[in-house]
Amino acid sequence: MQPVNLRSFKQKVHHHKKVFKKFLGKVEKNPPKNINAIVDKVDAAVWKEIDCLSCANCCKVMSPTYTTKDIQRIAKHLKMTQAAFKEKYLYFEKKEGDWMNTSQPCTFLNLENNKCSIYEVRPADCAGFPHLKKKKVTDYIHVHQQNIEYCPATYKMVEKWMEEIKF
Question: What is the pTM of this model?
Answer without folding.
Answer: 0.90
